[in-house]
Amino acid sequence: MAKKKRKVNTKRIAIVALIPVVCITLLIANFTSIRLSIKGYHKEDKKVVLKLEKEDIKDILQYDQIIDISKWDKVKNDAHYLLYDEYYRASKKSVKKVVYYIDSYYERMEDLNYLGYTKNVLFKNSDVYTISNMDTLISANVPYKKAKKYLAVKGAQIQDIKKYVDSGLSPLKAVLQVSYPGIDSSKKDSRSYTIENPEDTLILIKNGFSVPSDYVPKDLRDVNIPYETEVGQLRDEAATALEKMYKDGLKQGYSIAIKSSYRSYDTQLAVYNEYFAMYDAAYAASLVSIPGSSEHQCGLSVDLTSQSVMNGEYGTFGETPDYNWVEQNAYKYGFILRFPENTGDRTGATNEPWHFRYVGKEAAKEIHDKGWILEDYIEHHGFTYNLRLN
């Protein structure tokens, strides 16, 4: 008897065959979501990421950090999450500032990339590469390859980049001559600058070059030598050097003392107003510095006198043997006579034989040996700090 042929259930076979197809399709459709889950993104952040352009999603998946999406969505933004995170890690600025900077940068990114200003270049020093300065670089149309040697000079001003390149001068000379003719006070300059690192012992502080009004040196301390009216204060390094100079002078029969040292911005302002109340503007301006541009605020300058002056043996420090000894030996301790005779046109100050400035032994020796003033040193070596155009 022949066996009965079993009826094939084609519908069931079709369903069974379809299952892996559906699974694969679902897997493919959700592959990106799965990868985001594996990377560590939670449900809500995944929803946001999956709405981005494919290239943006790809970059986020390849990024070696997990981006806190919700953090950036606390403020209105253009959804450049990867750039937000990269810049935040480089700058540590607030969420609001990061979003503003990146959204503004993104609008200019194509032009900046064309000139060679990559995000790595910009993010590392975004305090210099502000949005305004980005616009200046784009307008100047100077490729980063040409500009970078000038921008590497301390104190370089981005708005002058085209002039630097066109000058044909070496980077240091270009920056100093184009942006800082006022180093030499005899050259009139309408610009004024704020010193961004007042702690630097080589700062040039004078009219046109000031420190912030709220700047107070962190390491101010009393100087342990005699004083005329009130205890003198200097920064620790300068105070230690002055104490050693005082002790060495005593051994040779000289006795120096402090007449004046650190002066706060408020003290400068009071003196400034007093002089302008007493004298006409032109004369007063020749006698007193604009508040914020006095070396005394940096805690590195001291007006000296001597025991012989305080005893009434001499009228002024400049006519004493003590002055002669200090003038010849100050450099050994890191001090220079800041305003020597016949330099007033360049320093912007009249001769002050009592005013000594601490710059450190190395710089002081070079200034002494070459018969320079601080302006000469800066014109030769350049700045060791950055300056902000006011």
From TrEMBL:
Where do transmembrane segments lie in this chain?
12-31
GO MF, any single term: peptidase activity
- Where does the D-alanyl-D-alanine carboxypeptidase-like core domain lie? 233-361
| Keyword Signal in annotation | no
Please give the InterPro entries that the UniProt record associates with this protein.
Answer: DD-CPase-like (IPR052179), VanY-like_core_dom (IPR003709), VanY/YodJ_core_dom (IPR058193), Zn_M74/Hedgehog-like (IPR009045)
Under the heading Gene3D superfamilies, the entry gives: 3.30.1380.10
Would you say which domain of life the source belongs to? Bacteria
* The protein's name in its UniProt record: M15 family metallopeptidase
